[in-house]
Amino acid sequence: MRFLISSARKDLLRRLGDPVALLMWIGVPLVIGSLIIIPFGGADSVPKAHVLLVDQDNSLLSGLLANAGSGGQLGQFLDLEKVELDEGRRRIDAGEATALLIVPQGFGAAVLEEKPAQLTLITNPSQRILPNIIQQGLEMLLEAVFYLQRLIGAPLQQIAGGPPDGGDFFANQTVAQLAAEINQTLQELQGTLLPPLLQLETTVEQSQSQAAGMPIGFLFLPGVLFMALMFIAQGMSDDLWKEKTQGALLRLVSVPQRPSLFLGGKLLASALLMAAVTLVGLLLGVAAFDVPLARLPLALLWCTFAGTALLAFFLLLHVHASSQRAGNVLSTAFLFPLLMLGGSFFPFETMPDWMAELGRWTPNGLAVAQLKQILTGAPDPGALATAALGIGVPALAAVLLSARRLSRRFIAA
Length: 413
What we know:
Shape: elongated
Oligomer: single chain
Helix content: 55-70%
Number of helices: 16
């Protein structure tokens, strides 16, 4: 037991003596995770286009256009603000809006009389997606106006022309005739548009995290945590070669202790280091996503166990490599596919079904899936026990094989 503790203490001191490597193991996953999460905007963020509207027409139609973004579902994606022309140009030049839309004088009359009219749209070049959405929306609006004119253009033109002989009102007979004409057109379209021939049915599938009110950034938290743990596991396993080149493993031969205790010390040191890193990550999750503190002890225990098991697999790769360089290549070839499939780069909820199903059977994928269940407050004891066996039993076999290889060929090779 004393040799085990001494071996673990030695590895911890070596890690603390190389803070740059330690920061790299922790910092790289944090940077990658941040770069992935930031574009999603956080909890319930919805991209919203800010459009400056210059209404030079002040007609009924331009007023309807100005009120388009004031409410309803469209208001969730569009923030429409009426401004004067000089202010609008100044603010779009300063990049303070997504686009500037100028409605010219005579726009309403031109639409009703089916005459040419030009809308001016100036977009913000620093934005990519939202200006395209605004442009596509205007094109759809023009298409709708075109077909509206084809259907009831004649009555609209008569209305736009106003009462005959300079009167203030249409005659009752004329109003009835216009209303009947529009009504007749709508009746003819009843079999096509009312109801429409094509119907779109949509369903929203929510992950358990989303159903529990968790933001999308929460989906990345378990994967980013295990990305950090896997970087630590890879670095700690590479330490075997450093100790070999420095002669530390040769001195192990003269010590009356089993190599399995030496590996056990390395696993113990890694477990303590992983527990510290996991605790910091989980506390960040508490602060950012309101994860209840009561869920942290089990999550901390699970991450420490699974991370240590992952180290056992990396140790097995290194003791069977022909050189330190070969070990690094082999462990890297093992690391990044597992990160890709195991939910670190992309959550399982965003993967194709076949890839997510495959990823959940990888060692880190099993661990990520169970950690997510723990953090959402819905762990299944049976599934957790199965995952622990699925990770722990192969890891124990990897430790035994590594100890056997270490005592026979690795030290003397």
